[in-house]
Amino acid sequence: MKKHNFSAGPSILAPEVIENTAKAVRDLNGIGLSIMEISHRGKDFQAVIDETVALFKEILEIPEGYHVLFLGGGASMQFCMIPYNLLAFKAAYLETGSWAKKAIKEAKLFGNVEVVGSSADKNYNYIPRGYVIPEDADYFHVTTNNTIFGTEIKEDLDSPVPLIADMSSDIFSRPMDVSKYGVIYGGAQKNLGPAGVTFVIIKEELLGKVSRQIPTMIDYRTHIEKESMFNTPPCLPIYTCMETLRWIKKLGGLEKMKQRNDEKAKIIYDEIDRNSMFVGSAEEASRSIMNACFVMKPDYKDLEKDFLEFATQNNIVGIKGHRSVGGFRASIYNAMSIDSVKVLVDIMKKFEKKHAK
Questions:
Q1: Is residue 235 domain-shared with residue 305, that is, in the same domain?
Q2: How far apart are CA 250 and CA 59, in angstroms?
Q3: What pLDDT does 357 receive?
Q4: How big is the chain by its Cα radius of gyration, in Å?
């Protein structure tokens, strides 16, 4: 029986990506060896990482002067690596959720941090506006999509200082201008591949400007010089990322992704707004295209558990909201099909018909 997987991460992958990865686990390209057991320094894996980098650059139209790296440690490791490498005196951060708050905490270990805007006053249910980015900051850091709270920055911001973006959960979801960013990073496990690999797109000219000694493994220049091969990279997750990028390219690239994602988001948000039992948790203008968060209206709060059970009975998984928000969260990343979104909407309608007062 087909499951409709709305999990926030690790999350859904395209069926052909899973199938092709499974084939490579059994036998990579007919060489008689699994992708999990070949040398990362051999020609067979070199071909994988070369194609993955090339697809990153092609699909995102990455300009000259940038490097694509594949590292370990998740986006959380980048919370430390960014300031370690880039924060000389002061950094600016936008606080839009739990992950942004964690990034701010790490940055404070390395220098002065100015939080230019925050939506903590309303439990991060909106993207701050009207803030001023200090021109004397070494960089300005944003988290573009906030999975827990269902808010998203949907455009490439203009910044007078290098713009750093955690794009763990919305990378490859829309066309973007990479030249506006100094660093784009994220964990793969929401929109790109399985857990275990972190992508970093970094402008090389930003490096080498801090006076502190940087440990070898934390220094981006180490990984640029060795082309992500200073130590053994996460080979299997990188392979799956390559398959995902092949799939995106075949579907028509980022314009097609945006069209699909906008359509899915409209379907689910239209139902949230129409349904008499539910209400969206994020401010309408800040709503995420990747994570639709909603709760039961006060009169139906006692039916939350019943709705989760009803969804599970109908093969819908992963819609329970984060504990800091409650309610429900439908993660509709790139690989989520429109058909699955329509199944969820149908379940919401049936539940309303059965329980609405």
A1: no
A2: 11
A3: 79
A4: 21
Counting the structural domains of the chain, the total is: 2
CATH number reported for the structural domain that contains residue 309 in this entry: 3.90.1150.10
Q: Give the chain as a 3 state SS string.
A: CCCEECCCCCCCCCHHHHHHHHHHHHCCCCCCCCCCCCCCCCHHHHHHHHHHHHHHHHHHCCCCCEEEEEECCHHHHHHHHHHHHHCCCEEEEEECCHHHHHHHHHHCCCCEEEEEEECHHHCCCCCCCCCCCCCCCCCEEEECEECCCCEECCCCCCCCCCEEEECCCCCCCCCCCHHHCCEEEEECCCCCCCCCCEEEEEEHHHCCCCCCCCCHHHCHHHHHHCCCCCCCCCHHHHHHHHHHHHHHHHHCHHHHHHHHHHHHHHHHHHHHHHCCCEEECCCHHHECCCEEEEEECHHHHHHHHHHHHHHHHCCEECCECCCCCCCEEEECCCCCCHHHHHHHHHHHHHHHHHHCC
What pLDDT is stored for residue 237 in this prediction? 98
Give the amino acid at 291.
N
Which structural domain, as residue segments, surrounds residue 51?
Answer: 15-251
pLDDT < 50 positions in the chain: none
Question: Over the stretch 103-128, which tens digit does the pLDDT of each residue have?
Answer: 999 999 999 999 999 999 999 999 99
Active site residues: 99, 166, 190
Amino acid making up residue 330? A
Would you state the pLDDT for residue 2? 82
